[in-house]
Structure formats: structure tokens, C-alpha cells
Design goal:
The complex is a heterodimer of chains A (496) and B (92). Chain A contains 19 helices and 18 strands. By secondary structure, chain A is an alpha/beta fold. Chain A has three domains: 161 residues, FAD/NAD(P)-binding domain (3-Layer(bba) Sandwich), CATH 3.50.50.60; 166 residues, Polyamine Oxidase, Chain A, domain 2 (Alpha-Beta Complex), CATH 3.90.660; 87 residues, no CATH class. By secondary structure, chain B is mostly helical. In chain B, helix 1 packs across helix 3. Chain B has one domain: Orthogonal Bundle (Non-ribosomal Peptide Synthetase Peptidyl Carrier Protein, Chain A), CATH 1.10.1200. The chains are: A alpha/beta (496), B mainly alpha (92). At the A-B interface, helix 3 and helix 19 of A face helix 3 of B.
Chain lengths: 496, 92
């Protein structure tokens, strides 16, 4: 982690050294403490604050947003981590649970391109355009394509999760590795989906994208999170950053608050937006759950992590228009597990043109790959630096195919690895997309094991990504609101 | 609230959730999601609004009861009997 250390004088771990008590302004008791400010935690805090509950939101990092984040570097560079694109549903979610001003900043991407040995084209990433391409370029019967889309669209949460993505693709497009690549590669980058995951998880997310294409925020992640903080404060939510929660306290089978910085913040309910495994196995502790539930949670598989390379373009230089989102690979055939290969041959480039931040003339390019924690976790310091340099070099070589003079235009380049993601988000193994399907149940049913304890965040693939996470925050808010109202009613009845 | 008012109450909630939908001609006995664009998040919003406005709890296992306007009237009738109509969006 030596690459972070240089940014904050006096820090021993790369994070900003703390001089003051981050909880100095906190009250002793809340209706609800939310742990973690990813989009699920933020949205839940906002919804429940607007319903009149007294909410404290605690974030271990100095920025709010979780993976919806950004960072700045000397030379005027701003890099967005996860602003690659989300489905149109985000407009409704923002309008309803945030503000119409936030919703009004959502715009459709102008370009999405695939470039790999099997096919190269631009697409609007909609059902209409994919249908046209599958029929005219891939030679599939229109009725098959329609049946495929209808099947995915019709899947719902209660369907059998044993039908896998691979099964489903083979049924509709047998042996068509090129089509499997078209359908899965972008979603694998969006939420870590693989051929072995349930078709239902893939189908929900893919259908959401296919309805109207891919969208982003004008103004960048920093603008968005700034606006969200304004809304939260307006709704009475108290925000605390740099707060490391050590424990969730449980008394007589009920969640009673959290311990952080030596203080016990009491609450009628606790909503964890931390990783589900960490929430149950570390923040609460297995001793508070039945053995069977603990085994179930221990068996929850995490999704993969990521690497990114951030390329900051010098002031005054402009990247010519290519596209917004470029899915690129040198691999002859598609293999979903190879997307996570150590120094693999596939990556996504997000091109951030000045339109992303109106008023700024700056360009930036972010390259993302999926990655496995184990490939990076145990490298010693020297090997780690060497492998990062290798990642950066391979990325620039690929990028030169599209932006030939990128090396002369870039004046800041750095890499993030699974270790970087683990370090900043505290996600177990740097997981970028939460958990596989089986993480959904323990997350949804947490309150039936410990009264007043809720979870919301990236689980089960479908709750991952910007839209999934924000909507899951609302789904959990509904449960928390019901619980808090019932608890208040019971307390009032008890006094009467 | 009487039965007619319950229909108005539901339409008022829907009109805040789906402001672009035309609600005047909704049939009572056809599933709402077959007549207008409502997804599962929209139904969740209806449930949350019912709790906020009228203190009515709809447990998850009863969500299906709200699939049609007629179903809403049957299911919510006893729960809303003593409540008065709250309008936020519709003008009656």
C-alpha cells in the first residue's frame, strides 16, 4: 500500500490521520444507525430520515459513497471509480428517493463499442439494437432473439435459480461463443456475473440495461455525492465520516447500537451497509447466531475484485471522440472466468470527456478489469509494485490502439488493485460486486435472527451496481420503517 | 373512507409514483401492472405511502392483494374505514 502513503503526511496506513474525535457531535441515541455509505446505505438513510426517523450515518472513509467514489490528483485530475454507466431505472430511483435535481443530471451515454477478435461495432446497448445485430450480423432467427429477450424479461425473483447463464445461453444460442461474449462480457464488468451464476440474476440486470441503454451522471461522482449529502442533511440525517465501527451491540437478541471510537452509540435499529459476511461474522460475531445460519453465511461466495488504471490527460490536450464505454479484448474466444485472469487480455475503457463535468475542459480515461483477490493478496512490496507497473504498461499498449499518442498526452497514470479496493472499502477480499446469489437470503432475513438488525448492500448480484444497490436501500428502508413504527407503538402501549 | 374514496386514495398515491400515467380510465378488475407501467419498486412505494399516510401495514405476503384496484378496495376497506382521504397530487 506504499502508493497511498505519500498523499497524507503523518499517516501510517495511507489514510488521512485523524486529529479530532469524529463522533464529537454525535448524540448518545438514535432511532437508526447506518453503517457504511455506499449507495444502499446512503439511500436508506435518506428515505428513513425523510420519514422522520432520527438517523446517524457512519462512514469509515473520509468520502461518502462507497464504491460510488472519485479521487483527485495534482494537476487538476479527477478520476471517477465506478461511473461507467447504469440503467435508465436510476432516473426514477433518484427522482423518488433523492431529488428531481439529481435525477435531471442523468444522461444517456453517447457511445458504447465492442472491439474483440470476434466482432467490432458500436451499439446503443438496447434490445432493439442487439436484436438487429443478432439477426443481421450474427445470423440468428428473429423469433429466437425475441424469445430470448422475453424469457429474460419474464424472469422474476421467485424463479428457480438453478438455471444458469450458461444453460440459458446454450438453449437459445447453442455453441455461439461470439454471442455469449456479446451478452455476458458487459454484464460481467457491471456486476461480476459468470456463466455459472443463476440466469435470473443476469436476466434482471441485463433486461434493465436493455430497456433504454446506458446512463451516467453529468457533473461526476463528486457532484452527485455532494448533492446527496445536502439532501441527507435536509432530511435530518447526521453524517459522520472517518468513523470505524468496531462492533454492532446485541443485547437479549436485539441490536442496540454500535461501538465506535470507544463510544456506544445506542439505536433502536442498526442497518449495516458493510459486506454481509463482515457484518455477521465480524461486526456482530457468530456467537449471536445459530450454528446453521453461521454455516450458511460462511458459505456465501464473494464476487470478484477489480483492477483499474487511471490515465489523466494533461491540461490543454484532448482525446478525440472514440466512444464513452469500450469493451475490448484480444482473446480469440470468450471465457467468462478468463475475465479475471492475472494480466488478462480483456478490459473496459471508460472515456471521460469534458461533457462529464460541464465547465471543465479535462479528459480522463479509466481502464477496468475484473480480478481475483488471490492473485494480488500475497505479493511482497517489490513484486506488488512490479505487477502494478506491468498492469499500467499493458493497459497503455492496448490504449495506444485507440489513442495512438496517449503516452504524450497523459501526465498522471496510476493503478488500483484488489488490495486498493479492500483498503478503501473494507470489502472482504476487495470484492467489487458484493456476493454471489446465496448472499441474498442471509441479507434479507437478518432481522429474523437478530431483532432490529438489517442489512442492505451488494448481495446476490441483483442488488449490485448503482441501481441495484440504491433500490435495495429502499427495500430495506421499508422493513426498517415498519420495525421502528411497531417498536414505537409497543413502547407507547407499554407506558399506557 | 368509502369504496370510491379508497380508489381515489390509491390513484392519488399512484399519481405521485408514476406522474406521467393516465389514471382516469383504469379498470377496477384488471391488474394494475397490465394497464400502466408499474414495477415491483412502484408497488413497494404504494405500500410505504399507505403506511405513511394512513398508518396501514401491508405485510409482504399480502402484496398480491393489491394487484388490482378491486383487490385494493377489498383488502384495504376494513383497514381504511375510519381514516379520511389524504390527497397530494390529484385534484378532485
Amino acid at each position: 500500500m506504499s502508493e497511498q502513503r505519500r498523499y497524507f503526511r503523518g499517516s501510517t496506513d495511507g489514510k488521512k490521520p485523524r486529529c479530532t474525535d469524529p463522533l464529537a457531535q454525535a448524540r448518545g441515541e438514535y432511532d437508526l444507525v447506518v453503517i457504511g455509505s455506499g449507495l444502499a446505505g446512503l439511500t436508506a438513510a435518506n428515505v428513513l430520515g425523510s420519514m422522520g426517523h432520527r438517523v446517524a450515518l457512519l462512514e469509515q472513509h473520509y468520502n461518502f459513497g462507497g464504491m460510488a467514489t472519485w479521487f483527485k490528483r495534482r494537476g487538476g485530475h479527477v478520476f471517477d471509480i465506478s461511473l461507467h454507466g447504469f440503467p435508465v431505472g436510476m432516473v426514477k430511483t433518484c427522482r423518488r428517493y433523492w431529488s428531481s435535481e439529481i435525477a435531471s443530471r442523468i444522461v444517456r451515454l453517447d457511445g458504447i463499442r465492442f472491439d474483440n477478435p470476434q466482432f467490432t461495432f458500436d451499439t446503443t446497448f438496447t434490445r432493439e439494437d442487439f436484436t438487429e445485430k443478432l439477426v443481421t450480423q450474427f445470423g440468428v432467427a428473429r423469433s429466437t432473439v425475441e424469445a430470448f429477450f422475453d424469457y429474460l424479461r419474464g424472469l422474476n425473483y421467485y424463479d428457480d435459480p438453478r438455471d444458469t447463464v450458461g444453460d440459458c445461453f446454450e438453449r437459445f444460442f447453442p455453441g455461439r461463443n461470439d454471442i455469449h461474449r456479446l451478452l455476458l462480457e458487459p454484464i460481467a464488468y457491471a456486476n461480476g456475473s459468470t456463466m455459472e451464476d443463476p440466469a435470473i440474476a443476469y436476466g434482471i440486470v441485463f433486461s434493465n440495461f436493455m430497456s433504454k441503454g446506458v446512463y451516467t451522471f453529468t457533473g461526476g461522482t463528486d457532484w452527485l455525492i455532494g448533492k446527496m449529502k445536502e439532501e441527507l442533511r435536509k432530511n435530518g440525517v447526521e453524517l459522520f465520516n472517518n468513523v470505524q465501527v468496531e462492533r454492532i451491540t446485541v443485547e437479549h437478541g436485539r441490536a442496540t447500537g454500535v461501538i465506535a471510537h470507544g463510544r456506544h452509540l445506542r439505536a433502536r435499529a442498526v442497518l449495516s451497509n458493510a459486506n454481509i459476511r463482515r457484518t455477521i461474522l465480524e461486526l456482530v460475531g457468530p456467537e449471536h447466531f445459530g450454528a446453521e445460519f453461521v454455516r450458511e453465511v460462511e458459505a456465501v461466495r464473494l464476487n470478484n475484485s477489480s483492477t483499474q488504471v487511471y490515465i489523466g490527460i494533461r491540461e490543454g490536450c484532448a482525446v478525440p471522440w472514440i466512444t464513452d464505454l469500450l469493451f475490448t479484448s484480444r482473446r480469440e474466444r470468450f471465457d467468462s472466468s478468463a475475465l479475471c485472469d492475472f494480466h488478462g487480455q480483456s478490459r473496459t475503457f471508460s472515456f471521460y470527456y469534458p461533457k462529464v463535468r460541464p465547465g471543465s475542459a479535462r479528459h480522463a480515461i479509466v481502464s477496468s478489469t475484473n480480478a481475483n483477490w488471490k492473485d494480488w493478496a500475497s505479493l511482497d512490496a517489490a513484486s506488488y509494485e512490479r505487477e502494478k507497473a506491468r498492469l499500467i504498461e499493458a493497459t497503455l499498449v492496448e490504449l495506444e490502439r485507440y489513442v495512438p499518442n496517449v503516452r504524450s498526452m497523459a501526465d498522471h497514470v496510476e493503478a488500483a488493485t484488489p488490495r486498493t479496493f479492500e483498503f478503501y472499502t473494507q470489502h472482504v477480499q476487495g470484492a467489487s460486486f458484493g456476493t454471489k446469489w446465496e448472499g441474498l437470503r442471509p441479507s434479507m432475513e437478518l432481522a429474523s435472527h437478530i431483532e432490529g438488525l438489517f442489512h442492505s448492500g451488494s448481495v446476490g448480484i441483483i442488488m449490485s451496481g448503482w441501481l441495484g444497490a440504491a433500490n435495495y436501500g429502499v427495500i430495506t428502508s421499508n422493513k426498517v420503517d415498519l420495525f421502528l413504527r411497531e417498536a414505537a407503538r409497543a413502547a407507547a402501549g407499554g407506558r399506557a | 373512507m368509502n369504496r370510491e374514496e379508497i380508489v381515489i386514495a390509491i390513484k392519488d398515491i399512484i399519481s405521485t409514483i408514476a406522474p406521467d400515467e393516465e389514471l382516469g380510465s383504469l379498470a377496477l378488475d384488471v391488474r394494475l401492472r397490465d394497464q400502466i407501467e408499474l414495477d415491483s419498486m412502484d408497488f413497494l412505494d404504494i405500500v410505504m405511502e399507505l403506511r405513511k399516510r394512513y398508518g396501514v401495514q401491508v405485510p409482504e405476503e399480502d402484496y398480491m392483494q393489491l394487484a388490482t384496484l378491486q383487490g385494493c378496495v377489498e383488502y384495504l376497506g376494513p383497514k381504511l374505514e375510519s381514516k379520511s382521504l389524504v390527497l397530494t397530487a390529484l385534484k378532485v
